[in-house]
Write a structure and sequence with these properties.
Helix content is 51%, strand content 9%. Helix 2 runs antiparallel to helix 3. It has 184 residues and is mainly alpha-helical. The chain has a three-stranded antiparallel sheet with strand order 1-2-3. A hairpin with a 5-residue loop joins strand 1 and strand 2. It contains four helices and three strands, in the order αββααβα. It has one domain.
Length: 184
């Protein structure tokens, strides 16, 4: 007589989860993180343009304030004339990360990858739609610490995603031999 009760009590009661199902669910987590960062970025940039276009600044706490800046370069406003190149490079990074999302093997890495994808997409959207020609637009930055270059939610997603990715690689490395066993 079998005394096991409830779902998951024994191997017969577990739902069959194929590798494809697991990868599909994992990919949804990464895409979900990307969409959250992207939507927050778009909404906050829209707000910044609507509220701060007159050149005003909103002082918050300490040195934190909101002030609208149009950045045609990359991080720290370097590479001002390289906007199209930076945009193309970001598109390549987005595509590579999306294609490899199903190979990511832990939750922290999934969220980190999704955050980087969402942030990069947010800044590429600015470059596409805020300029006269393809990828020539300026990125909207508005979070100003006054002691650090002005940035936006997309930048936060990229930086926090990169930090989380590094932490994941250091503390949760893939077991040897597992990294190349993924099937697309």
């Amino acid at each position: 007589m079998d005394n096991r009760v409830g779902v998951g009590a024994g191997w017969r009661h577990r739902s069959p989860m194929t590798k494809t199902t697991v990868r599909y669910r994992a990919k949804r987590v990464g895409i979900g993180a990307a969409l959250i960062v992207l939507v927050l970025d778009i909404i906050t940039k829209w707000w910044a343009v609507q509220r701060l276009s007159d050149g005003s600044a909103i002082d918050l706490i300490g040195s934190l304030r909101f002030k609208l800046v149009y950045n045609q370069g990359m991080a720290f406003s370097t590479g001002t004339n390289a906007g199209p190149f930076i945009g193309l490079l970001a598109i390549v990074v987005i595509v590579v990360l999306l294609r490899n999302l199903n190979k990511v093997d832990n939750l922290l890495s999934l969220i980190a990858t999704g955050s980087i994808i969402g942030g990069a997409t947010g800044n590429v959207v600015d470059r596409i739609f805020r300029g006269d020609s393809f990828l020539s637009g300026a990125v909207i930055d508005f979070i100003d610490l006054q002691w650090w270059p002005v940035f936006n939610i997309a930048d936060i997603g990229i930086v926090c995603g990169a930090i989380a990715m590094a932490v994941s690689l250091i503390f949760f490395p893939a077991p040897i031999g597992q990294a190349d066993n993924h099937v697309d």
